[in-house]
Amino acid sequence: MSNEHNNLYEFGEFRLDTKERVLFRENETIILAPKVFDTLETLIKSNGKIVSKDGLMDEIWADSFVEEGNLTQNIYVLRQTLGKEFIETIPRRGYRFAVDVETIKLENDLANFRTNGNPAFQNGENSPEIVVATKTKTFLKEELIEEDTENLLPKTNQQTKFIEANLNTTQVVRSSKFHFGLAIGIFAAVLVGAFGLFVWQRNNISEPVAPVINVSFTNLTESGDVRNMAISPDGQFLAVVKREGGNGGSIWIKDITSKQELPLDLSKDFTPQVANFSSDGNSIFFLNRRSLAKGAEIYKTTRFGGSAEFIGGNVWSEFAISSDGEKIAFYRHLSEKNQFQLVVKNLTDQSEKILVKKDFPDSFLMRSSPAFSPDGKEIYAIIRPEKQALSKIVSIDTESGKERIIKTPNIRQFVSVVALPNGEDLLFTARERRKYPQVYRMNKAGGKFQRLTNDLNVYRQISLSKDGKNLAVLQKHTYSHIWFIPESSPEKAVQLTFGKTNRDGRQGLDILPDGKIVFTSLEDLNRDLWTINPKDGSKQQLTKQRGDINDRPFVPQTGNYIYFNSDDNEKTFNIERIGINTQNIEKVTGGKSQNDMFPTVSPDGTTLYFIRREKGKSSLYKKILPDGEETEVKLPEGFSADSFPTISPDGRFLAMRQADKQKLFDIEEEVSNTIKIAIIPIDESDSANAKMLEITTSQSQFRWNATSNAIYFVKHTDKDTAIWKQDVFAETKSQKILEIPDMRIYHFQYTNEMDFAVSMGKHVDDVILIKNFN
User: Fold this and answer.
1) SS3 call for 71
2) Distance between CA atoms of residues 192 and 186, nearest Å
């Protein structure tokens, strides 16, 4: 048996196994193309030194001649997989692996392994393989692990602690009197633990999807402000809509080869949000939208700008153009009927055909675009049955309007879809269970199903050249971290969480009585609840393996529980609570068909209020704790329930967002917009004091102030984000109380001392080009 060393390298949340040639991110296996793996291994083995491009080329392609672009592509793939901070470019010198690496040297040692006459091990064929691991830069010097199973599973912290607690590995290897029975017992214990982990993984992750190995990636933009994009039919140009504050934007045309870009000069004041090339590439269609509360209009101009021709109105989504250039398809929302329509407009005679109607709660995914098949006989659309979180792709006959669901294994939520020229395959962005939205290719008849990307980025809108060889994808990043701001003083702000993928606090946070912050995080892939102590930065995970989503934490003034949303039955949302001291989790509300969300509890801790959504209806409910009936709260005439109910500290009023029929679908962009807040007396007999408050805000969440006479809310501008105060019962102007430059606030809470816990970060959205996926 060879004594050749086999190393494991740990860096950040990753582990590289050079023997099995596998990269792990915690318990997730990431498959890298062979040359990409070689690139990563070479950089890691350089021990932080700069490696020249020629040196990398000689090491990775020693026996062949390739262009430098292959190396550049490998570096790009690694940065997309690991994070841009892992590999540093040293101008005119090369690349350097920029993070600390811990090396675990694995050494096979069967020479000293005694069989004690056991016939099962006489010939060595069935001998268990004992491996000694020496881990540098950590207190763990040596440990025993098992290496002879077919699937090497990364060790958890619990397994490592178990090994440390139960044996002295130095004695295992070096003692000449090592007892074979003890070795078998330890080996069996580790094997059982590994088997248990394997079973847990099999029960809790989706089946693997075959990757497409030879895919290449190229950055097309690096501005971070892309709102929408489209690639030209010939694949030579990119039309980009860039954000310019509020709902506005500007259209830019970029030559992909020369990398030159110019703004599209429009003849009048437009606020474009979506742009698309005509089928011949000579014209630009764009969606002009001035208000989120109203339908938009589609206009057409030349590829060089100039006057714009009106094409159609009352458009509520992105749009698609047929390959022959004669039709355009989009979604429309009729608020008076609560109906969603798929509309096909003939560009020759300007006639419209309503192909499909869906009555609420059924709907289309309104922030997506329908997609024509190459022959124009079908339209592919993403639907949301009964407004569920899950979505499906359907094929719709353009003549009859007949729908056919396309079966897609593993997928829970679709984002965008296009059809390949062969008429048989689809490309789409979608989310599997516990994964970020990625790019996939699938045969629509239910055959080949492959993942084009497999990293920690979020992929949304996609656009395909006419020959199907160039795929432009909008790659979205949302960085969100937890900050502590003492005394409402931004100059004293302290960042508590880090990382580019966790999106900490993005779906809610609150403050516990002991000062710890409870927040949502994707650190464990699911959306779970964590706590962090602002004093020392120590963290603790509260929920684990309870469905995909656990969010919107609420801590009542009594401070004995944390209430939150959970989808642990994978069908509907329920209100659950976890004991702050006991950490026992129990279900508080729930049923088979309704979704219970947005918990808030009265100051005395006796009554839970929440929003129940079922059968197209959104209602305010309450429950006397712990075991009272769940009853609907009768609202004053003209008032309705939407989201984020919150009770004033004096217990007299409940504030919540008023339902708006114009906004029943999801709006992806977080722009400042006027919303209505219903102020409702808790005492139903006092309904005469109910009132409606209008605020301009960028987030649906708001908080009562400590004296119960005003609310705090968030508003973004081009330069900053700020928390504002608005009096509820007095006619006064809103006041800015906390301003953060160049950031976005997603959620916040405050203490009596006006210390703020804030989740804030940035959106960075750019376009990448994907090729070689056929």
Assistant:
1) helix
2) 10
Q: Which residue has 């003890």 as its token pair? A: 182
Q: Which of 594, 696, 611 is nearest to 655 (CA)?
A: 611
Look at residue 336 in the predicted model and tell me its pLDDT: 83
Do residues 216 and 235 make contact, with C-beta atoms less than 8 angstroms apart? no
- 190 and 146 Cβ atoms separated by less than 8 Å: yes
- Per residue in 456-510, pLDDT tens? 788 999 999 999 999 999 998 778 999 999 999 999 999 999 876 678 999 999 9
C-alpha closest to that of 340 among 322, 319, 315: 315
* Sign of the alpha-carbon dihedral angle for 501, 505, 508, 513: positive
What does the pLDDT look like over 113-155, one tens digit per residue?
A: 233 333 333 333 333 333 334 443 332 222 222 222 223 233 3
Using DSSP bridges, classify how beta strands 517-521 and 14-17 pair: parallel, antiparallel or unpaired. unpaired
Question: What interhelical angle do 34-45 and 53-60 show, nearest 10?
Answer: 130
Backbone angles phi, psi at 297, to 5 degrees: -120, 150
Contact 575, 562 (CB under 8 A): no
Length of the chain: 774
Contacts of 110 (CB under 8 A, 6+ apart): 1, 124, 127, 129, 130
| pLDDT attached to residue 212 | 59
What global pTM score does this model have?
Answer: 0.64
Q: In whole angstroms, what separates CA 11 from the centre of its chain?
A: 23
Residue 261 burial class via C-beta count within 10 angstroms: exposed 0-12, middle 13-18, buried 19 and up: middle
Rounded to the nearest integer, the mean pLDDT of the chain is 81
Q: How far apart are CA 624 and CA 613, in angstroms?
A: 19
